[in-house]
Amino acid sequence: MAKTTTPISIQKLTVKEKWENYWKRVKNNFRNRKQLIDFLSKVLIYSFAVITVLILLTLVGFIIYKSIYFFQNYPGGFWGFLSGRTWNANNNQFGIWWIIISTFFVLLISLLFAVPLTIFSSLYITEYLSPRIKAKVIGIVRLLAGIPSVVFGLFALTILGPLFMLMGAPSTSNLLVTSITLAFMGLPIMISLSVNAIENVPEAYRFGSLALGLSKTHTTYRIVLKSASFRIVTAIMLGVARIIGETMAVMMIAGNAPDGLKIDNGFLNFIFSSITTLASTIGLEMLENSGPMHESALYAIGLILFIFVCIINIIVISSQAIKSRKKNLHSIKKGKKLTLSTSYNAKKMNRLFYNKIEQTRTIKKVRDGIGFFFLISSTIIVISFTLLILVTIIWKGLFGMVWHDLISTSTYSEGAGILSAFLVTLLLVICAMIFAIPLSMIVAIYLSEYAAPSSRLARIVRYAIDVLSSTPSIIYGTFGLAFFIGVCKLPISILSAGLTLTIVILPIMIRSIEESLQGVSPGLRSASLALGATKTSTTIKVVLPNAMPGIVTAIILAIGRVIGESAPVYLTLGTAVRLPIAGFLSPGASLTTQILMLSKEGSTADAMRIMYELAFTIMVLILLANTSAATLGKKMAPDYVRVGFKQKWTNRFAALKYFFSKEFYQDKKVQIEKKWQHWFRKQRARKQARIEKEQGDK
């Protein structure tokens, strides 16, 4: 008899029951609520790290997408685009050969000025200055880095240009003025990174060279410079990316002539030619393009510019990898064994040795003097140029200011519209910070706390950050114009410009915050984890509070970058001076773009006055941002001791009382006597050593 089986009935679950069962399984995988939060936070952090890579891919993808139309329809194709000798949008002639050549000569002449100044001033700052003076000089260099590009352009237009006109230049806008200006714009990043490279040279190299009798100058050039040369070259390469991508200053001072480079008419006509570069061509014609073909050609220029920057980054990263893999830096060569001659005469050898020293003593002193002259003169040039810009802005901006201009809201009826531009800039800063702070914080936490050293995702994220940090700002502007305004259908407004500036400042903030997080002692993390805290709790309650001074400094410095940025704002915000009545959806002009528009309208006396008023306002805001960053960084440090208001003024009155007391002058008298006694002892010791040396020679 066959055995019958009863069919099993399958119960169908509702959607709600399925989700309940899913969450039960998820909760069973975690022992408590803390582990679940730790898992979710890890997923969030990894997701934001992937977003950074997606930003780079989206930027590159949109530039390529917007360039395809041009390459498909242009008769000459890609090579005709590169080798064409004429750029004339009205006749559909889009050859960028002369623009590339002009960009190359601007870069070459800029490096002829920037490279020696970078090397000599970096060596003098690290090897000869005391720590106190060194901190002040580096502060001046950082101040030069904070000057916006339009302020550089204004200074070159009104000071450098007329100076070269006295030398025979036909106008204030030419190749030489552009190259010198870009050289000083690229100096801050070159000097800062070169100083870090020289400081990392082991002290044993210096002491060993000095112990062998080499002079300080000889040690600086032959030992220190040679040891740090690789990283100095890397710093110069990053400065090259900065020079190639500059837009706004070049638009103000280059002359903007695509075919204006004169090679066959003599040297003076060559260096005083009116030119345009790849980046300035995009900035000049993007908002006034004559049609889809012209617009796509400008995106194609952006693609070429981006390729140049990527090549520079690949060279830098690959060279660093090759350098790190070299294990034997000093190879020992086997040679013949030394044998002591039987006719060795110690007195004769000593006499020959001292005679050789006396013969070359003068030559060495002259050589060391020339080398020291280059070191100190380069540092003086960098400091003097920075102070000259600041003094010019203060003199023409502050002492020539019409105070009614500060509260004017439009440019009608001879107004300056500074108040409107200030409010637009303020909203721009707020909008950019709303998006940039959380994104940069989470990505920096991933790189510092979660990423393994050999992680492939971490390497990809770091490469994306490196490429984004060296990408010219005009490319960000074209991306914002194509994506946020063209695809997302946002209006030309503060919101569009703020989103674009978020991508601009993102790499800088991630790098700075990551360095702050890595500066926290590993012992604090270990102690927190040993007490049973999760990774998320340790990061939030231990790492972030101890890294807060550096984080606040990074945020404030990024605010200064937003205030001084002009190229992305010019393409995504607009140029009309008006009050931001509609909030973040308002168009308008920032402080920097208003300077650019006034420079286009002409160099009248009123326009120059307003431009310097705007430049003075920008510099005051940036100086306040830098000062606030330094002050808050000190006050938020873990070892900072808070002094009350009463105690602070008590200490000040005590110091003032001591200054006017008799003990102060007695202490100063003792200090001066000690210094003179030390100087006299030093002179006597030198005289005694000279006498003993002369007796030994005899």
UniProtKB/TrEMBL annotation:
Residues 100-316, 422-629 form the ABC transmembrane type-1 domain. The keyword Transport applies. The chain crosses the membrane at residues 43-65, 96-125, 137-163, 175-195, 230-254, 296-317, 370-395, 415-448, 460-484, 490-510, 543-564, 576-598, 610-632. CDD domains: TM_PBP2. GO terms for cellular component: plasma membrane. GO terms for biological process: phosphate ion transmembrane transport. PROSITE patterns: ABC_TM1. It is a multi-pass membrane protein. InterPro entries: MetI-like (IPR000515), MetI-like_sf (IPR035906), Phosphate_PstA (IPR005672), Phosphate_PstC (IPR011864), Phosphate_Transport_Permease (IPR051124). It is found in: Cell membrane. One of its GO terms (molecular function) is phosphate transmembrane transporter activity. Keywords: Cell membrane, Membrane, Phosphate transport, Transmembrane, Transmembrane helix, Transport. Its main location: membrane. The keyword Manganese does not apply. It comes from the Bacteria. Belongs to the binding-protein-dependent transport system permease family. CysTW subfamily. This is Phosphate ABC transporter permease. It comes from Spiroplasma chrysopicola DF-1.
